[in-house]
Amino acid sequence: MSVEVLPETVDTGRAGRNLPAAILVGVLLGAAVVGSLFVRREAFVGVAGLAVLLGVWEIAKALTTSRIMIPVIPLAVGALGMLVSAFVAAEEGLLVSFTLTAFGVMLWRVIDGLNGAVTDVVAGIFTAAYVPFLAGFAVLMLATDNGPQRVLVFILVTIASDIGGYVAGVLFGMHPMAPTVSPKKSWEGFAGSVLACTAAGAFGVMQLLGGPVWVGLVLGLATAVSATTGDLAESLLKRDLGIKDMGRTLPGHGGIMDRLDSLLVTAPVAYVVLALVLPRL
pLDDT digits over 45-64, tens only? Predict the structure, then answer.
């Protein structure tokens, strides 16, 4: 996949982004997600489904650079099935749908031919686990009594991690965290993520969920770790595939997966923290 060269007139800043486009796209995406949360819960499931389908498509396209051909049709059907099942049948529905999707990927690929089937099947099941299965935990949060508020807190804290890490990294970044994987990610940026996450977590849990401040601090700290892990994991995948971005779906951001990476890994973490702690208070 070729790397697009940005025009000289575009100010990408120290972080290498088209900042005006990135901000505009971020605001529009945020409005769509938050609006769907509080209009009707099913609307959020639909928005999440669209994002997951785009994510699966981007990964499938990226894998072709290494001649890995995952079966997109059973993955797409299974992805939507996982989100719907998580919404109507909770954890059991999500797990059963994932199992059926994995079986569908294996069957579809074997029927298509045995040459390279093992690699394609493993990559297909990885894609099913990485995108729709992890996204299913956001839908599990949505299905609780105060689901929209839980999902909103999860999104706010994850975004805070990205913003805090970005700002601190640009202003103070001097010590690379993982130079061979993501040269621009620094320990100073991670410290900014921790500070922003804990502040956002404390505010969100107290104001939106009515919980104590310490729960927000725990959620924020866990999110800083998980969001950074998700970002590094995708950077490792892109480096292994020899690509810069997962796609060009979102101007100023790259592909949809370049925005979902932190959210996907954080979704199960936020679900577990809130499910284990809040009901017991």
Answer: 999 999 999 999 999 999 99
Assigned domain for 12 exists: no
What is the percent of the chain where pLDDT is above 70? 90
- Structural Rg of the chain based on CA atoms: 19
Judge whether 209 lies within some domain. Answer: yes
Q: In the prediction, which pLDDT does 121 show?
A: 95
Whose CA is closest to 29, among 256, 267, 270?
256
Q: What is the pTM (predicted TM-score) of this model? A: 0.88
201-230 pLDDT, tens digit per residue, is 999 999 999 999 999 999 999 999 999 999
Is position 1 within any domain?
A: no
Q: How many domains does the chain have?
A: 1
Residue 6 lies in a domain: no
Residues 251, 253, 254, CA angle at the centre, nearest 5°? 80
CA 21 – CA 38 distance, rounded (Å): 26
Q: Which helix (H) or strand (E) holds 187?
A: helix 187-208
